[in-house]
Design goal:
about 190 residues; mainly alpha
């Protein structure tokens, strides 16, 4: 039976870190917004990866690492080391476009969502320091996108119309995949 009614039941969540407990109540529409965040970031990363891979000129991280990182960035030395170390620059020239493509594809289909979101958040953290601009404060788009990736992971967005829901419940002799291998919960969901 289909319904257009909004479930007003309360979705409660709670977490304790370092002795501090926070609690929240999400509206039932929250699942749609978490799904939208997952799909938005998936599309953005998939598009960026495909764009780099299909560009007329092969993607090279060296120019960005050596020339685009502002001198004020706390990690400018690390970025310059990466750009001036040939094997590492070559690695990043492959890892960045393929990483974006794979992260984007994983988010779109909702497979290994937490793992994809972790690496997406890591890339956004590196972009945050690489695009260092604090004239208007410490928060910029790269930082905000990092938090979106972390939210996608925290809310288990791959379970919302994603393959993670199917994979997690795959039956292995009367036991689900994540019951048999509980550590998979760190990459699925």
């Amino acid at each position: 039976m289909a319904t257009n009614e909004i479930n007003t039941g309360i979705n409660e969540f709670e977490s304790t870190i370092g002795g501090l407990t926070v609690r929240g109540k999400a509206h039932s529409l929250s699942a749609w917004f978490v799904l939208a965040l997952r799909l938005m970031m998936g599309y953005a990363f998939l598009y960026s990866g495909v764009d780099k891979l299909l560009a007329a000129e092969p993607f090279s991280a060296t120019g960005y690492l050596m020339n685009a990182v502002p001198a004020e960035s706390p990690l400018v030395g690390i970025f310059h080391w990466m750009g001036s170390t040939p094997w590492f620059a070559d690695f990043l020239s492959v890892a960045v476009p393929w990483g974006e493509l794979l992260i984007g594809a994983a988010l779109i289909v909702g497979f290994m969502t937490r793992l994809a979101a972790f690496w997406g958040a890591f890339m956004m953290l590196m972009f945050y320091f690489g695009n260092w601009e604090v004239a208007h404060g410490l928060i910029n788009g790269d930082f905000a996108y990092m938090l979106v990736f972390l939210s996608v992971a925290a809310f288990g967005a791959g379970r919302i119309l994603g393959l993670d829901a199917i994979v997690e419940n795959y039956d292995l002799d009367g036991e689900t995949l994540v019951e048999r291998y509980p550590r998979l919960r760190y990459v699925l969901g």
